[in-house]
């Protein structure tokens, strides 16, 4: 694991958005799906990839 709340780059390369199956990018304490417009939390170094736990960052049309 890299840094506080950081996800190992090799793990991040394997993770995808559970809704769209597209790659995620890390932004602070969240993993962001640009395609879905969702930000998934990272809690105690563990990504929580549940759509119900995600924060909407913008509307996808």
TrEMBL record:
InterPro entries: Trm112-like (IPR005651). It comes from the Bacteria. Belongs to the UPF0434 family. This is UPF0434 protein HZF05_15610. It comes from Sphingomonas chungangi.
